[in-house]
Specification:
- The protein is α/β, with parallel strands linked by helices.
- 37% of the residues lie in helices and 16% in strands.
- It is built from 16 helices and 15 strands.
- A 7-stranded parallel β-sheet has the order 5-4-3-6-7-8-13, with helices on both faces. Strands 1-2 form a two-stranded antiparallel sheet. A two-stranded parallel ribbon has the order 9-12.
- A hairpin with a 5-residue loop joins strand 1 and strand 2.
- Helix 6 packs parallel to helix 7.
- The chain is globular and about 60 Å long.
- The chain starts with 8 loop residues before the first helix and ends with a helix.
Length: 393
Amino acid sequence: MAFSSTAAASTAAAFVSGHRRRSGAGQYRPNNLLSSSSFLSAFPRAVAARVGAAPSPRVGAVTVRAQAAGKKSVLIVNTNGGGHAVIGFYLAKDLLAAGHAVTVLTVGDEGSDKMKKPPFSRFSELTSAGATTVWGDPADVGAAVGGAASFDVVLDNNGKDLDAVKPVVDWAKAAGVAQFLFVSSAGIYTPSDEPPHVEGDAVKESAGHVGVEKYIAEQFGSWASFRPQYMIGSGNNKDCEEWFFDRIVRGRPVPIPGSGMQVTNISHVRDLASMLALAVESPGAAAGRIFNCVSDRAVTFNGLVKMCAAAAGAEPEILHYDPAAVGVDAKKAFPFRNMHFYAEPRAAKEVLGWRSSTNLPEDLKERFAEYASSGRGQKEMSFDLDDKIIAAA
């Protein structure tokens, strides 16, 4: 286990005190400073300029309790792979900006190759803003964060089944944690003839996330579960929009299974993080609730291709095909579920007063800029399945 240096959470509180951001007609939402990339990069420097070297609230080597009145100490148990890791990264930034103390426990070893990829390679942005970052095994979370650590809120953004999450839940309950949050998945919904999925729709009882949600509800009075779908945003290391860019920049057809009119949901990760942050700051409203952690707009597969091409400054060529006729597995040939898969964030709007800021055409421009700067568009790639589809079609 390795520890990074931490600055005072109270410095962030001093910087953001009184700040409010317009969030819809006539409404203001507090403590959501991190909706722009410019602020993400400017925050550490701004804090240093405004407060200087303020003392850090510490117990041993771990920040354990925010000092400002009404502020909380939050532990984020963060996965070390897949698309969800970036949720914890953005949430930590939101909470730090609001003056809370944040510890991020990442699964595994700080020296592993996974930590060389984003968002882990950008953890200095967290520590410079006052976070503590540690690595370890969630099965022994107490040892990973230090025996003296104490938290008001724990978020599990790692486990997909009860075996993985139960040790964290049990430790949190024994440690007197007041609120437990869980990042679940909208993939647990049973396919419906009436999309979009809304909170309360039937779920697959066999899904691991369902068992976790039930167990948390049995152990905590103040708990909430968040069900994301596909996400976009700087720091995400799971291919999504990159799959489309890979073909568009090379002038290749983009093979889409079926008609391309299938509807799905792609949210900017800042929206997912802001929803979680609101639950931390309004535990009474969030208690015992399920939230679809998604944006409030859908997109078709055809529309996504067109938006990706526009972001790249190119004209799209879409090739529709029947996977069965071509003899390919759509799960291997396409990065999305080949079906309508769309949830709606009704509960977050009604209960938390949350508002979406996802603007997919603009967000894709941000992602293409990163894609272009990475040099991925010039790398040699094989498109064997694409070639099989093109030949058959």
